[in-house]
Amino acid sequence: MEGGGKQQQLPASFSEGEGLTKMSPKTVVYASVTSIAIAGPLLAMMGFTLSATVILLLISSPLLLLFGPLLFFVGLLFAAALAGFAVSAALCLAGMFAFRWVYKSFGSGDGGGLVGGMVEKVKEEGKDWAGFLRNKARAIGSVADGEESRGLQDC
């Protein structure tokens, strides 16, 4: 060939024009022995697995028929336990969101963080609540005296 390229050497078992159609008998024997060495143990394991499965099925079938009703209730108990764990996880998540909501609602004020903001907010809410209770008590007292009250209509 021109250009200095190397010509590819073919193995001795292949001739130039035949390609893969001709193999030496030695290669065929080696391939057969290798396939038997690999496939033989696999077939043996497959047969052992099949026979073990059939034997265990024959042994366990009567036991399954005897204990079937009991296994049904065990399955229901297992499902109830899983449902309980799911409810527990949901309540845990709800509790974490509630703590986050409380932290954000009390901690967002300008009262100096969580505790300072909480104190200020409780004071303000307490003032409103005390005024509401005072008006409510006056309204109830005036109704007890026979007077009609505006405070009761506002509630």
From TrEMBL:
Coiled coil: none annotated. One of its GO terms (cellular component) is monolayer-surrounded lipid storage body. Its main location: other. It is found in: Lipid droplet; Membrane. It is a multi-pass membrane protein. Keywords: Lipid droplet, Membrane, Transmembrane, Transmembrane helix. The chain crosses the membrane at residues 28-59, 71-99. GO terms for biological process: lipid storage; post-embryonic development; reproductive structure development. Belongs to the oleosin family. This is Oleosin. It comes from Dillenia turbinata.
